[in-house]
Amino acid sequence: MRLGVIGYGDRISQIVKILQQLNNNAKVVSVIDPNQKAVGERVSSSNGDYVFRDSISEMVQLDKPDGLLIGTRCQLHAPYAIEAAKYDIPLFLEKPVAISLEQTIALEKAFSKSKCNVVVSFPLRVSPICTLARENIESGMIGTCEHITALNYVPYGTCYWELFYRNYESTQGLLVQKATHDLDYISYLMDSDIVNIAALASYGRVFGGTKRAGLKCSDCDEARGCAESPYNRQKYGADNSDHLCLFSADCGTPKTGMNEDATSVLIEFASGAHGIYTQVFFSRRDTEIRTAIISGYHGTINFDFYSSSLKYTAHHKAFSSNTKFETNSNHFGGDVELARNFIDVITVGAKSFTPIETGLKSIYACLAAKESIKTRGFVSVRQIGKI
User: Considering the domain boundaries, does residue 367 fall inside one?
Assistant: First the structure.
């Protein structure tokens, strides 16, 4: 199974590693990435020889890959995917599939007549705990889905201000970066597209500031008294390595664009049901929660990704049930399922669990939420098929 990788970063290297664990014949044969040294450090020593290429067309013509994987920085996902759409070669596409409305429309057009079978990197949707919740819903345990509440308290949220994620120009904020996962699985569980959305966000209330650009803790006179310094993070077992300042001008401003400290979204589904989603990025330690509560007239299902637990409560019977799933793999077991699916798409022509339509629908909803923050009102979500 010959693989061509476009953007061999940490994320795609994780997926390639799983692919090679599941299929002994999986081999990276060519790579498009300007940082050849970093690629060399990430490619498994057992992989064998591979070459660097300058374009997908060159990769396809010369290396004959069975599958392509795109794991570049976010602003390049759509341009490379549009190029990949020209070929009848299965594609693993990292989320978000696009970062702007213009990119998303262009991506939809490119795939409207493409034979390229895409697996979008939405591991939450295919994780065992989310799959079980969907199966329970489909069995009629709660009746028709009437409401969903979803929460995402991110214990590692500082990475969005101290790593490359803080570059707003290339990431376009945490609705695009983070909520694209959650709005996808929310729509999947409700079995209904998101049609209208309203959102509020907090900017610059916790992170961001006026510290000089490029400032690191090791160069800061205030590090000893700062809660984000390695000295103080070490006290509660957090990463205590030197890092860029979370309160510097590099983080942007509400006017120029910056990541949200927190976001809340009110969702209307095509079915007529509605729901709520909130994501918080300054929480720490045991506050971690990524949960959904789905209710119908006959019952409620409540599950959490971090604890891999699911509770079902019958509304009209005197019983409840609790289920626990054991997993230590990335994205709550979802990465393994994505990798299995991608292998099956390549080897036996299987159907993708997360086709390009899922990525398009999710990013259209995220972009509508961003627009709602600006307009302070509901925004209609663009639906696919309107090009």
Answer: yes
Residue showing tokens 């949707």: 125
Q: Determine the structural domain holding residue 85 and report its residue range.
A: 2-122
33 lies in a domain? yes
Of the three residues 122, 154, 169, the one that is the final residue of a domain is 122
Q: Are residues 181 and 32 in the same domain?
A: no
Place of tokens 């610059």: 204
- Who contacts 288 (Cβ-Cβ below 8 Å, separation ≥6)? 153, 154, 155, 306
Q: pLDDT digit string (tens) for 94-120?
A: 999 999 999 999 999 999 999 999 999
Q: What total of structural domains would you count in the chain?
A: 3
Who's near 323: CB < 8 A, 6+ residues apart? 132, 309, 310, 311, 312
Do 59 and 116 belong together in one domain?
yes
pLDDT in tens, 239-282: 889 999 999 999 999 999 999 999 999 999 999 999 999 999 99
* Spatial separation of the C-alpha atoms in residues 68 and 3, rounded to whole Å: 6
Tokens standing for 68? 């392509």
Instruction: Return the closest-CA partner of residue 373 out of 265, 259, 215, 244.
Output: 265
Q: What is the DSSP string of 71-119?
A: -S-GGGHHHHHHHHTTSSS-EEEPSPS-SSHHHHHHHHHHHSS----EE
* Same domain for 229 and 194: no
